[in-house]
Amino acid sequence: PTSNTPSPFAEAYSTLKNTFGYDQFRLQQEQVISSALDGKDALVIMPTGGGKSLCFQIPALVQGGACLVISPLISLMKDQVEALKQNGVSAAFLNSSITAVQQQQVEEDFMAGQIKLLYVSPEKLMTRDFFNVMKASTLNLIAVDEAHCISQWGHDFRPEYTKLKFLKEQFPSTPIMALTATADKATRNDILSQLNITQAKTFLSSFDRPNLSLAVRPAQKRVEAIIDWVKNQPEESGIIYCLSRKSTETLAIKLQKQGIDADFYHAGMDPQVKDKVQERFIRDDLKIVCATIAFGMGIDKSNVRWVIHHNLPKNLESYYQEIGRAGRDGLASKTLLFYSYSDVMQLKQFIETGEQKELLEAKLQRMQQFAEATSCRRKLLLSYFGEQLEKDCGNCDICRNPPAFMDGLKLAQMALSAVARTQQKIGTRMLIDVLRGSGRNDLFQLGYQNIKTYGVGKDHSYVDWQHYIGQFLNLGLLEIAFDQHNALRITELGKKALYSEIEVKISKPESQEERKQRLTPP
Ligand code: ADP
Ligand code: ZN
């Protein structure tokens, strides 16, 4: 090329400014785009909200031909196409949400070279008709969005995605760009091999979001804590993720009763009502949404100031993605996770019935370890995504307030011997009542007031005992017998504790005052 033809990269830069209105590339957008312009395959791993779309949109625009974008999310496709059209880019989508006649028109336009970016669902991509359309077009790039769906190891496996191997076979000279926010190594390797792009360069952008503070609290009295939290920062917009549809509704109603501007959102709602909630939230007409994980996909709202998890997410990918909806404008934002052992049990039960049991359980266990961490949480989180943080972050609850440890051997012995003396037949509630010497009717009927440990733990509150027993479970001194109505059972390690053969180090429970202080936003 002569010196007065602009290099494709200079054009990429002017497209960034003129078409999208941005001054600078973010993260590794620049490197990814230049690799695509060189005709190379790539795997792009960027956190949600990092700006993956521009990585394929810009190469599509600065070259001849068109870019095909494979996406499993129909609603996202529509949003992206609309956003592109608003920026003056010719874009369209093909999926089951439009009529056959409309589809045909789009296909004709595409073959005539009138569309620069065409989004297709994997189902549509797999049809013979569409194969002919592809063959009759000039493709400058094939982008596979949400590429983790290809992997059995991922959390969103889509069987249709495993058929994408034909792309490289049929279009060997068209670069393929796989994009995802999921970075674990097994998933990464799976994407490369399933797409047959094992030579592709991997672009891994940092997952660190230093503007998000991280914190975890025990789940007891969480509604009260949430109300305090909101009342302390009434002007701020936030999302509260709940495990069940029902709890999004009950929580929203409890907040409304306190005069708080909150509503709920879940997949079981009438689509129109749902869209309305989402719209009000985006327009700042609604401050707080209590939602299931269905909320947030593709929501582009930059001033979400906080995200609370009312329940434990099922893995760290989900957690990261959900907290990532806060602070997209880069300003300081807060996240808070409420942790309870009963959530872990419930999530475990969901797994029981599904496939890939072991993998899902291992992921849940990592999530639990994060919740129970006694060292910098951000370090732990980033290391899960393959990134090492050299120093502690200073912006998580552990860094700000390292936990105090205490010797828990005596307490463990009280609890364990009560479990032994009740023949390992009782659950956490009854155990605590025995230890605290409760006058419960059924306790007396069973004669538990006569055992030696009845009442020995009465100097500790019910909530403190919940905290201790949670720790004994985590330490593996006790386990829950799912086949025995969730009764507590003593493990081999627990026996050693009973005989004082091991140390038992546990974190101190928080006092009411401490809890209040921690829940007050800085
Ligand atoms: P992802 O797909 O990675 O979740 P998107 O592609 O939807 O993220 O981008 C998230 C937001 O960031 C969008 O609003 C997008 O317009 C914006 N964005 C992307 N790249 C840049 C950039 N270089 N400068 C400023 N904003 C950007
Ligand atoms: Zn930290």
Task: Describe this protein's structure.
The longest helix is centred in the last third of the chain and has 15 residues, at about 355-370. By secondary structure, the protein is α/β, with parallel strands linked by helices. It is elongated. Adenosine-5'-diphosphate binds next to helix 3. Belongs to the helicase family. RecQ subfamily. This is DNA helicase RecQ. GO terms for molecular function: 3'-5' DNA helicase activity; ATP binding; DNA binding; four-way junction helicase activity; hydrolase activity; metal ion binding.
Quaternary structure type: single chain
Low-confidence stretches: none
Mean pLDDT: 90
Main beta-sheet annotation: 7 strands, parallel
Number of strands: 18
What molecules are bound to this protein? Answer: adenosine-5'-diphosphate, zinc ion
The helix content is 40-55%
EC number: 5.6.2.4
Protein name: DNA helicase RecQ
Catalytic activity: Couples ATP hydrolysis with the unwinding of duplex DNA by translocating in the 3'-5' direction
Family: Belongs to the helicase family. RecQ subfamily.
